[in-house]
Design goal:
Elements (H helix, E strand, L loop, with lengths): L2 H8 L23 H15 L6 E11 L5 E10 L3 E5 L6 H8 L7 E6 L15 E2 L10 E4 L11 H11 L4 H9 L2 H4 L15 H13 L5 E5 L7 H18 L2 E5 L3 H7 L2 E6 L2 E7 L3 H12 L1
Helix pairs in contact: 2-8, 2-9
Length: 300
C-alpha cells in the first residue's frame, strides 16, 4: 500500500461507540428554506448554552512556518464542547493548515494544541486531563475528520471502505450497516450496492463518503474542510441538517471551514475569521451583527 495511504489510515480515529443520530433528516425531500436552518440554529444554540462551557480544544502559542512563506500564528484560542464552529476566510487564510495542525498531520514549530476528551469512561468528566495532540494518540479515537480525498481508500468500494473502518474500530459489520442507514437519503441511492470503486465515483459522492466516515463513529469532535464542495443543493441542505442534528442530539462539537457564508451563518453558533494565518475576528453568531460584519469584510 502507498506510504501516503498507510499514513492516512494510521490517523483514522478508532472507537467502539455506535452513532445515535435519529434519522429525521431522511424525511427531508426538498431543499429547506434558510429560515428553517436559522430557527434550528437558535434552538440548538439555546440547548447547548448549558453544555458548552467546557473547553474541548485549546490552542496555545501556535506557530507554523511553511516553505511557501505562509505562516500560522495563533497566540491563544479555545473551542468549547457542543459548539458548531465555522472557520471562514479567503484562499490562503490558513483554514486547512489549521485543521492539519489540529489533527497532527503537520507539526507545529512552536506552541501546542490540546484536546480534553473522555479516554476513560470510569473517569468523571471534571477530572479529564487535556491531551497534547502531538504527544499522544489517545485523542484519535474521539475525533472524526475529512479534509480531502487523501482520507479515502479509493481502490475499495464504499462498502469495503466502511467495513475496513469498522474493523479497525472494533465495530461489527452489522453495526456498520445500521449506522450507515442514518445516511440513506443523503446518499440518494448512488453510493452503496453499485459495485463501483470509490475512485470511479463522482466528486460529490466521494465527498459524501468522506463526510459519512467522519460522523459514523459518533466522535466527540467532527472536523470537516469545505464540506459543501461538490454537493448539489439538496445534498448541501441535507448536510446542514445532519450537522445541526448531530451537535444538538449528542452535545458534541463540529468544526467546519467553508467559503459559503450563507451555509456557515445558517448552522454555526460561532464564526472565526482567518487572515494570513491569524485569527482576526471571533464572532458569536447570535444576531444580525455577525452577518453584517462578515459582509463588510468580504466586500472590501
Amino acid at each position: 500500500m502507498p506510504m501516503r495511504k498507510r499514513q492516512e489510515i494510521q490517523k483514522l480515529p478508532r472507537t467502539r461507540t455506535r452513532i445515535n443520530i435519529k434519522s429525521k433528516f431522511r424525511s427531508v425531500r426538498k431543499p429547506v428554506e434558510t429560515l428553517f436552518f436559522r430557527t434550528l440554529h437558535f434552538i440548538i444554540k439555546s440547548i447547548n448554552v448549558n453544555k458548552s462551557n467546557s473547553t474541548i480544544i485549546s490552542i496555545d502559542g501556535l506557530k507554523k512556518n511553511l516553505s511557501s512563506g505562509f505562516s500560522i500564528d495563533i497566540p491563544g484560542f479555545k473551542i468549547n464542547k457542543g459548539e458548531i464552529l465555522g472557520l471562514v476566510g479567503n484562499n490562503g487564510a490558513g483554514k486547512t493548515t489549521m485543521f492539519r495542525l489540529m489533527l497532527d498531520l503537520l507539526k507545529a514549530d512552536e506552541g501546542s494544541i490540546t484536546m480534553t476528551v473522555n479516554t476513560d469512561d470510569r473517569q468523571p468528566k471534571a477530572q479529564q486531563q487535556p491531551i497534547t495532540v502531538s504527544e499522544s494518540e489517545a485523542w484519535k479515537q474521539h475525533v472524526g475528520a475529512y479534509i480531502d480525498e487523501g482520507f479515502l481508500i479509493d481502490f475499495l468500494t464504499a462498502e469495503e471502505y466502511f467495513d475496513f473502518l469498522g474493523k479497525i474500530s472494533g465495530i461489527s459489520q452489522n453495526t456498520v450497516r445500521l449506522n450507515l442507514q442514518n445516511f440513506d437519503h443523503f446518499t440518494n441511492n448512488e453510493i452503496f450496492g453499485k459495485k463501483k470503486l470509490i475512485r470511479n465515483m463522482s466528486a460529490g459522492n466521494k465527498q459524501k463518503i468522506g463526510i459519512m466516515s467522519a460522523f459514523f463513529r459518533n466522535p466527540d469532535v467532527v472536523i470537516l474542510d469545505e464540506p459543501f464542495n461538490y454537493l448539489d443543493p439538496t445534498g448541501q441542505n441535507l448536510l446542514k441538517n445532519i450537522i445541526t442534528e448531530y451537535a444538538g442530539q449528542t452535545g458534541n462539537t463540529v468544526i467546519i471551514s467553508s467559503h459559503n457564508l450563507s451555509h456557515t451563518m445558517d448552522i454555526c453558533s460561532r464564526i472565526v475569521l482567518l487572515e494570513h494565518g491569524r485569527i482576526i475576528r471571533d464572532i458569536p453568531n447570535n444576531d444580525v451583527n455577525a452577518a453584517i460584519e462578515l459582509k463588510k469584510y468580504f466586500e472590501t
